[in-house]
Write a structure and sequence with these properties.
Order of helices and strands: EHEHEHHHHHEHEHH
Protein name: Pimeloyl-ACP methyl ester carboxylesterase
Number of helices: 10
CATH topology: Rossmann fold
Strand content: 5-15%
CATH architecture: 3-Layer(aba) Sandwich
Pfam family, one: Abhydrolase_6
Oligomer: single chain
GO molecular function: catalytic activity
Structural class: alpha/beta
Largest sheet: 5 strands, parallel
Distance between the termini: 6 Å
Length: 230
């Protein structure tokens, strides 16, 4: 079976994944903010592990990093898993909001204000107390410099339509039914952009299916991997 690499969402970390056997690198802000820097970090991890080709997945920000990696080294990717993410660039308003949050994090640090700002958009209305507690913990334990860096990196990301249209690998696109940030219609547009995509919606779930519905997420992923031979 192809090695599986999963990249985490903002403003979380590898603890969001409950997928045995997957490589889940931590993404850290280094240098000038840009997703290419994070993609280079992931490629360095693959090199360290001696992994030539992988099944690459990402949730939200992790999906953006996966697309940045595809711009650098598409030959390293045997298949793709995109979870609640999109391939288009930020609107000017969205980018300005990211920069505003980055500025506030640098002024005030990471605290309950960030939890209150993020959780309603990350989790669906029926998310369990366990899921809410895990997301809160992950947010509060992030380094402020990483949170600010990630936001600025995402604000400057390019549209990835041309990169995805040129690929010829199996792709799985998953989206939570109640995702407010990248809703099902956005996921549908991403799936259409990919040549060989399977698109599925996870019911009663928000932006983080691997956290809210980990069993369902793993089952969908494993079924698709068996179908496409990855």
């Amino acid at each position: 079976m192809t090695d599986l690499v999963l990249l985490h969402a903002f403003p979380l970390d590898a603890r969001m994944w409950d997928v045995p056997g997957a490589l889940t690198p931590s993404l850290r802000g280094q240098g000038e903010p840009g997703l290419d820097a994070l993609a280079s970090q992931v490629l360095a991890v693959l090199d360290e592990r001696g992994l030539d080709k992988v099944l690459l997945g990402g949730c939200s920000m992790g999906g953006y990093v996966a697309m940045a990696l595809l711009r650098q080294a598409p030959e390293r990717v045997r298949g793709l898993v995109f979870v609640d993410t999109k391939h288009t660039a930020d609107t000017p308003e969205a980018a300005a909001n990211r920069h505003a949050m980055a500025d506030r994090v640098e002024r005030e640090g990471v605290g309950e204000w960030l939890v209150e700002a993020m959780v309603p958009n990350l989790l669906g209305p029926n998310a369990s107390g366990t899921a809410r507690a895990l997301v809160r913990t992950m947010i509060l334990e992030q380094r402020p410099e990483d949170v600010a860096w990630w936001q600025r990196a995402m604000a400057g990301r390019p549209d990835s339509t041309d990169v995805l249209e040129s690929l010829d690998v199996p792709s799985l696109v998953l989206v939570g039914e109640h995702d407010k940030l990248t809703p099902p219609d956005v996921a549908a547009k991403l799936a259409v952009t990919l040549r060989r995509s399977t698109s599925e919606r996870i019911e009663d779930c928000g932006h983080l299916p691997p956290v809210e519905r980990p069993d369902e997420f793993r089952a969908r992923l494993e079924r698709w991997r068996a179908q496409v031979g990855l």
